[in-house]
Write a structure and sequence with these properties.
Rossmann fold, GMP Synthetase, Chain A, domain 3, seven-stranded mixed beta sheet, five-stranded mixed beta sheet, 26 strands, 41% helix
Length: 599
């Protein structure tokens, strides 16, 4: 069935009018909004934009943190047949100006505060921007053009729909599945962002297909916290729309633990970084516990890992093992699951690779994390592990209606309704992104992988990230980096280098909170940079790397490493908004450190 996002929204709003669609934290209180209220907001904002002169096919940008206003603005843009342009709230004025000008956006929705200030700075070089709508605070002063508040636009739209109740019907009738729904600008680990053209057919197809593999129902509760400018959270939102999910908007990443307690989610999509931080916190809490508690936990985990391995292999679990596990589950593991609210059915990890050791750790605790794989160009997930059919260490099977093929050089090729149409205003990049033509046109993912006999895909690396040593060995650095990270909860990021070199070296960044806690337990004094230079830390990291090296071929082993005296961050420009490492940026900024390890 070919459909559009605003059609899905209207159908669900009619069917679930009185049910709550989401909760958001405002002035310390979790406030609900029903499906009917959300639809009324969408239709009023769409009417306001229509009155301003926005027409079918016009681009409208949204910049701000993930919140209900973002989703209503998106729904309104799609309802009048417009094209949503998501801009990360952390973008610089130059980045904002580039996206607004390149996408030809006429209107910008922006959150008050820093995003609005950056938008004002960018506006001076955006001649096509006619109107800025600000939500969540005071209007900025000294704007070079027309600025309205969210409430003013909403009230304007309500007055218009009261006079002409058929406005939403008229707008909706114009929207077709092949219309462009959004341009998603790739955050990019290198080079300027490209605008990926996604249609309503792309988005609706992936939202439906996701629900086939991982069904979502009205009884499910999810947390919305990833940037909505990123395709993973957007398509997850649309999948929740299809399934009738109840959502909670987490105010920030730091507020996630408290949001988990309040919402008690049954499902959640995340990036690996969140699971890594939870794992690090568990390990450090354990390290601070009395020896007898540590011993109890280690024994319990041994039992749990054994049972989980049997479950994954489809083998029966012996009765004595079942009894032991039930005891430890009640005493130990249920308390850890309570961190996530205590009723998670499954979680989905995407956006970046996650270590299999981490997946096995959480599975032993009774928390199933299903890894998926996709790109902005595939409208989100192209593959995913199913709830009843999964293999940890793989990214699952192809989504329904999606085909995979491995090229002669090992590149993953993808074909299906979710695959994007083109890069906006970039025919050369579009041509380079595809192999073949017509019915035999396949999207070239840029990732290297292999398919097993059951159709499960394993990602080994990105083609551009492959290291070719001076000895001619091809090495996938991400596998090594994940292995090293799994050996110490202190490690935040690892960047392996060695292209055209005789051996591999690594740059290591640390979790500041975990490092300070570790130092206190070991009686070490000093601030964060001083601890990074300490001999005790170096010995700890040498042990972690030695452990990882034992599981690697000789040519894959890390011979030397250096500790960075600050973690990698988005604000620092080393991480993308989806928390992937900008490898080239990190290597460039630390060129002297890298060279010293080869001196």
């Amino acid at each position: 069935m070919r459909e559009t996002i605003p059609h899905i929204m209207r159908q669900q709003a009619l069917a679930n009018a009185g049910r709550v669609i989401h909760y958001s934290l405002e002035n310390g209180e979790w406030r609900p909004m029903t499906w009917a209220q959300a639809q009324e907001h969408v239709e009023a904002v769409a009417a306001g934009l229509d009155d301003h002169g926005c027409r079918h096919g016009d681009s409208v940008a949204i910049m701000g943190r993930t919140c209900w206003q973002w989703t209503v603005a998106d729904g309104a843009i799609l309802l009048f047949g417009g094209v949503t342009i998501g801009i990360y709230e952390t973008s610089t004025p130059d980045q904002v100006a580039y996206i607004i000008n390149h996408s030809e956006s006429r209107v910008l929705f922006v959150a008050a505060g820093q995003p609005a200030e950056r938008a004002m700075a960018a506006w001076k070089t955006c001649p096509g921007l006619e109107l800025v709508i600000v939500w969540g605070g005071a209007l900025p002063a000294g704007a070079p053009g027309r600025v309205d508040s969210w409430d003013a636009l909403l009230q304007q739209g309500r007055r218009l729909t009261a006079v002409n109740p058929q406005t939403a019907d008229r707008l909706l009738a114009q929207v077709q599945p092949d219309d462009v729904a959004t341009l998603v600008y790739t955050s990019g680990t290198t080079g300027p962002p490209k605008g990926v053209v996604l249609t309503h057919a792309n988005l609706a197809f992936v939202a439906r297909a996701s629900n086939e593999v991982l069904p979502i129902g009205p009884d499910d509760v999810g947390i919305v916290f990833l940037p909505l400018a990123h395709s993973l959270q957007r398509v997850t939102l649309y999948a929740g729309l299809v399934g009738g999910l109840l959502g909670y908007f987490a105010p920030s990443l730091d507020a996630l633990p408290e949001t988990w307690k309040v919402a008690r989610p049954t499902i959640m999509a995340s990036v690996p970084r969140i699971f890594e931080k939870v794992h690090a916190r568990i390990e450090n809490t354990l390290a601070a516990a009395p020896p007898h508690r540590q011993a109890l936990f280690r024994f319990a985990m041994k039992i749990a890992r054994h049972r989980a391995a049997l479950v994954r292999a489809g083998k029966p679990v012996p009765l004595p093992l079942q009894v032991l596990h039930r005891c430890f589950d009640s005493l130990v593991f249920s308390r850890i699951r309570a961190v996530f609210g205590g009723r998670v059915r499954y979680m989905v990890s995407g956006g970046a690779p996650i270590g299999v050791e981490l997946l096995e750790f959480f599975h032993a605790l009774g928390i199933l994390i299903l890894e998926g794989y996709g790109l902005t160009e595939t409208s989100g997930p192209a593959t995913v592990n199913g709830f009843d059919a999964f293999k940890l260490g793989t990214v699952g099977r192809a989504m329904p209606g999606t085909e995979l093929r491995i090229s002669e050089i090992g590149e993953i090729l993808i074909r299906g309704t979710g695959v994007f149409r083109e890069y906006f205003k970039d025919p050369e990049a579009t041509a380079a992104a595809f192999a073949g033509a017509g019915p035999d046109r396949w999207f070239r993912s840029g990732d290297v992988g292999d398919l097993d006999a059951d159709g499960f895909l394993r990602i080994t690396d990105r083609i551009k990230d492959l290291i070719i040593t001076a000895g001619g060995k091809n090495i996938a650095p991400q596998n090594i980096e994940n292995l090293v990270k799994s050996r110490s909860p202190l490690i935040s990021h690892v960047v392996v280098h060695g292209d055209r070199r005789n051996y591999l070296v690594a740059l290591i960044a640390l979790h500041e909170d975990e490092l300070l806690g570790w130092a206190e337990r070991h009686g070490l004094a000093g601030d964060y940079p001083a601890l990074c230079r300490s001999e005790a830390l170096r010995q700890h990291l040498e042990g972690a790397i030695s452990e990882a090296n034992r599981d690697l071929a000789r040519y894959e082993q890390i011979k030397k490493f250096a500790v960075l005296e600050q973690d990698l961050t988005q604000d620092g420009g080393e991480l993308t908004p989806s928390l992937k490492v900008k490898r080239r940026v990190v290597e460039s900024r630390n060129r002297a450190v890298i060279e010293s390890m080869y001196a």
